């Protein structure tokens, strides 16, 4: 404020100090009430938490068909289906005389066929695909 004089600055300082004291008082009162509430009802109205996680453990998730077991089964099913879909393409490539894993990967890349996650084929990804088809 370019036009501020000593009187204006003094008044603004007094107002700011009063507001700071009011905020401090409200904060103190709110904390005191929160402490009192916690003493009466416990931790935020809930029983005391001694341990994190599901009290029934992972067994409850497995029974409900949820959790990692169900998710990994679905991923496996999708991967098996994708391998079956690619089996004729692999057979065609192998019948053309391409037999090494690297050469098969190069051929899949030259045909612009993407992996399940949209990436390029490598010898290891071809090996994983062939292993999945054998199982």
From TrEMBL:
- A GO term, aspect molecular function: DNA binding
Region: Disordered, residue numbers = 35-77
Composition bias type Basic and acidic residues, residue spans: 36-51
InterPro entries noted in UniProt: Resolv_N
The residues that cross the membrane are none
| Domain Resolvase/invertase-type recombinase catalytic: from-to ranges | 1-38
This protein is called: Resolvase/invertase-type recombinase catalytic domain-containing protein
Native species of this protein?
A: Bradyrhizobium diazoefficiens
């Amino acid at each position: 404020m370019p036009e501020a004089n000593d009187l204006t600055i003094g008044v603004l300082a007094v107002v700011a100090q009063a507001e700071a004291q009011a905020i401090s008082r409200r904060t103190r009162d709110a904390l005191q009430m929160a402490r009192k509430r916690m003493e009466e009802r416990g931790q935020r109205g809930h029983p005391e938490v001694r341990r994190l996680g599901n009290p029934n453990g992972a067994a409850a998730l497995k029974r409900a068909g949820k959790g990692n077991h169900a998710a990994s089964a679905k991923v496996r099913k999708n991967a098996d289906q994708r391998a079956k879909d690619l089996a004729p393409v692999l057979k065609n490539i192998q019948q053309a005389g391409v037999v090494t894993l690297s050469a098969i990967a190069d051929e899949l890349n030259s045909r612009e066929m993407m992996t399940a996650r949209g990436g390029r084929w490598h010898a290891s990804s071809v090996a994983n695909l062939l292993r999945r088809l054998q199982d």
